[in-house]
Amino acid sequence: MKLHTRWRSDRLGEEVSVVRWGEIGTPVLIFPTAGGDAEEIERFQVIESLSGLLADGRIKVYSCDSLAGRTLLRGDGSPQHRMAVMDRFHHFVRQEVVPAIRLDCRSEDIRIIASGSSIGAFNALAMVCRFPDAFSHALCLSGTFDLQRFYKADMTPDLYFSSPLHFLPGLDGDLLFALKQRFVLLASGQGRAEDIGETWKVAHVLGSKGIPNRVDAWGNEWHHDWVTWRRMWPLYLDELTRR
Question: What is the pLDDT of residues 159-211, one digit of tens each?
Fold first, then answer.
């Protein structure tokens, strides 16, 4: 049921891990939080929470190391270098992870649900907005969407084009047309360490461009924590795979 693969990415200049749970069903790529690794969601019992959907063959779950987040947390190099790594990470996912998932699914054009919590939600949203040819939905939990404040430097084109909150307002043409056929589901608690304002800000930008989306605001008892996300993921993946 679990498959672990590893390869060296020339784009990122280091080895990366991709892990799969399940054998059939809709492919779901879950990004780790911040600098987490590909097995983070198993350690924090997300895979256990999804056991019913996995056993029923509704979903196959994939995850990869959060290399850009790791670079950000460690403060490697200059802020400009770290912004460039974020852009390269997104292209690594599109050009290396997506083809690996499609090969595993035996489909050259299957679209993937992108998901994540916290900074993982940022990456999930970016995948759909940058590459709607490869992703059908973004499921974003307790999202941290404005990363510029973590770099403490002026924004570069690398971060601008990695950040939907920044590049979407000026988007037009074929990419925007494709995004209007996609769906973004944003959920956030309002308890400890949550900032649902970031979620509403993204929803406003998406809505202003005609991109289908929905915000689910959970109560004050739901914190920025794995307990919340373990409750959210099975609920929303059940919904999205019934569409």
Answer: 999 999 999 999 999 999 999 999 999 999 999 999 999 999 999 999 999 99
Q: How distant, in Å, are the alpha carbons of 131, 205, 238 from that of 97?
A: 13, 28, 24
Domains of the chain, earliest start first = 2-240 (3.40.50.1820)
Q: How far apart are CA 77 and CA 74, in angstroms?
A: 9
* Cα(99)–Cα(29) distance, integer angstroms: 12
- Measured in degrees and rounded to the nearest 5, phi and psi for residue 215 equal -110, 130
Residue 8: per-residue pLDDT: 97
Where would I find the H helices in 105-216?
A: 119-130, 148-151, 157-160, 164-167, 173-179, 196-208
Burial pattern 122-152, b for ≥16 Cβ within 10 A else e, equals: bbbbbbbbbbbebbbbbbbbbbbbebbebbe
Q: What is the pLDDT of residues 39-85, one digit of tens each?
A: 999 999 999 999 999 999 999 999 999 999 999 988 899 999 999 99
Interatomic CA distance for residues 220 and 23, integer angstroms:
37
Cβ contact 13:96 at 8 Å: no
Give residue 19's Cα distance to chain centre. Answer: 15
In angstroms, what CA-CA distances link 45 with 50, 73, 74, 89, 104?
9, 23, 26, 25, 24
For residue 34, pLDDT beyond 80: yes
C-beta of residue 27 within 8 angstroms of C-beta of residue 62: yes
At residue 26, the pLDDT reads 98
Q: Residue 211 is which amino acid?
A: I
